[in-house]
C-alpha cells in the first residue's frame, strides 16, 4: 500500500504489539497516518512480558519514516482508555480513528468457566471497545468526523466451543458498533466491525487434538495478519465515508459482508397462541428454518482464497 490514503490522520491501534494489530499499525503508518501503538506488553492470557512489543512496532514505523508513539495503558480500565486517546491528542493534536483490536483469551468449557475468566475477557474486549470509543466520542463530535473499527469474531457471529466469554464479548461488540453508528451518524462518525481470519496469538490456542482440527489450523496459518490491514486502512479513510454499521470478514484474499439478524420466517394465529398450539403448529412450522448447532468451522468450510 503505497498510496497515502490516510495521510495526516491520527490513528490509535490497541493491542498493536503483534499479530493483526501490528500489521494494521504498520499499514496505517505506511499509508500516511500518525499512529499511537497501544500494547500493555502482556501474553495471551494477560501475563506481563519482559519487553513491551509496542515500542518495537514504533521503532519499525520510524525506521521507514513514519510517525508513531507507543502507549502501554490498558483498555480494560476507563481511565487507561482515556489516557490512550489523550496521548494521541497531546502528541498529534487530534484523533481520527480507533482500531479496537486488543484482546485476550481465557478458553474454558462452559461449566468450568470461572467468574474471573468471564470478567477478564469481557473487560478487555467489550468494555475495552466501549471505553476507548467513549473516550474518543467527544473529540469526534467536536471535529465532526471519526472512524471506529472494532474486531469481532466468527466465535461470536457463529459460535465456538469453550469460548462463552470471548463469544459473548465479540457479539456484544457488533451491537455496540451498531449503536454507536446510529447515535453518532449525525456527527459524521462511522463505526464498523471486522471479523478477521488470521493466524496470530489469538488463534494459536486452537486445539489440534484431531486430524480435522490440525487441518483447520493448517488452513488458518495461510491467512496471515497482514491480509486484514488493507480493509482497516480503507475504513479509516475518507474513501469509506458512506460505509457505516457494517460487519466485514476477511479470509486471506477474500472480503465478506456478513449478515445481521433479520426475521426469516413467521407464523400467525388469529386467535392467539397457547403453549399447546405453539407445540402443535407454531414450532413445527418454523422448524425447517432452525439454525443448526454450528461452530464457525462448520460455516466457513471452504479453503481460504
UniProtKB/TrEMBL annotation:
InterPro entries in UniProt: KR_dom (IPR057326), NAD(P)-bd_dom_sf (IPR036291), Peroxisomal_Beta-Oxidation (IPR051687), Sc_DH/Rdtase_CS (IPR020904), SDR_fam (IPR002347)
Ketoreductase domain ranges (all copies): 9-205
Pfam families registered for this protein in UniProt: adh_short
Superkingdom as given in the UniProt entry: Bacteria
Gene3D superfamilies noted in UniProt: NAD(P)-binding Rossmann-like Domain
SMART domains tied to this protein: PKS_KR
Entry similarity comment: Belongs to the short-chain dehydrogenases/reductases (SDR) family.
PANTHER family assigned: BLL2957 PROTEIN, DEHYDROGENASES, SHORT CHAIN
Name by which UniProt lists this protein: NAD(P)-dependent dehydrogenase, short-chain alcohol dehydrogenase family
Amino acid at each position: 500500500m503505497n498510496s497515502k490514503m490516510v495521510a495526516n490522520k491520527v490513528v490509535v491501534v490497541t493491542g498493536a504489539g503483534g499479530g493483526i494489530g501490528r500489521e494494521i499499525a504498520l499499514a496505517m503508518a505506511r499509508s500516511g497516518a500518525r499512529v499511537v501503538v497501544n500494547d500493555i506488553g502482556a501474553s495471551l492470557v494477560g501475563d506481563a512480558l519482559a519487553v513491551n512489543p509496542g515500542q518495537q512496532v514504533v521503532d519499525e514505523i520510524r525506521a521507514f519514516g513514519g510517525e508513531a508513539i507507543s502507549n502501554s495503558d490498558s483498555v480494560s480500565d476507563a481511565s487507561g482508555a482515556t489516557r490512550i486517546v489523550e496521548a494521541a491528542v497531546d502528541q498529534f493534536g487530534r484523533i481520527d480513528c480507533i482500531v479496537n483490536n486488543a484482546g485476550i483469551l481465557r478458553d474454558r468449557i462452559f461449566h468450568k468457566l470461572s467468574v474471573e475468566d468471564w470478567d477478564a475477557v469481557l473487560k478487555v474486549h467489550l468494555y475495552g471497545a466501549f471505553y476507548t470509543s467513549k473516550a474518543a466520542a467527544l473529540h469526534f463530535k467536536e471535529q465532526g468526523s471519526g472512524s471506529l473499527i472494532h474486531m469481532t469474531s466468527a466465535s461470536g457471529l457463529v459460535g465456538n466451543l469453550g469460548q462463552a466469554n470471548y463469544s459473548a464479548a465479540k457479539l456484544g461488540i457488533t451491537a455496540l458498533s451498531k449503536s454507536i453508528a446510529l447515535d453518532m451518524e449525525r456527527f459524521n462518525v462511522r463505526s464498523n466491525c471486522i471479523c478477521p481470519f488470521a493466524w496470530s496469538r489469538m488463534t494459536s490456542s486452537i486445539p489440534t487434538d484431531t486430524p480435522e482440527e490440525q487441518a483447520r489450523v493448517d488452513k488458518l496459518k495461510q491467512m496471515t495478519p497482514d491480509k486484514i490491514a488493507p480493509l482497516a486502512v480503507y475504513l479509516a479513510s475518507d474513501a469509506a465515508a458512506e460505509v457505516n454499521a457494517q460487519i466485514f470478514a476477511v479470509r486471506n484474499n477474500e472480503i465478506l459482508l456478513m449478515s445481521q439478524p433479520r426475521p426469516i420466517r413467521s407464523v400467525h394465529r388469529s386467535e392467539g397462541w397457547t403453549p399447546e398450539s405453539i407445540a402443535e403448529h407454531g414450532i413445527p412450522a418454523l422448524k425447517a428454518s432452525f439454525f443448526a448447532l454450528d461452530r464457525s468451522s462448520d460455516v466457513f468450510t471452504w479453503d481460504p482464497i
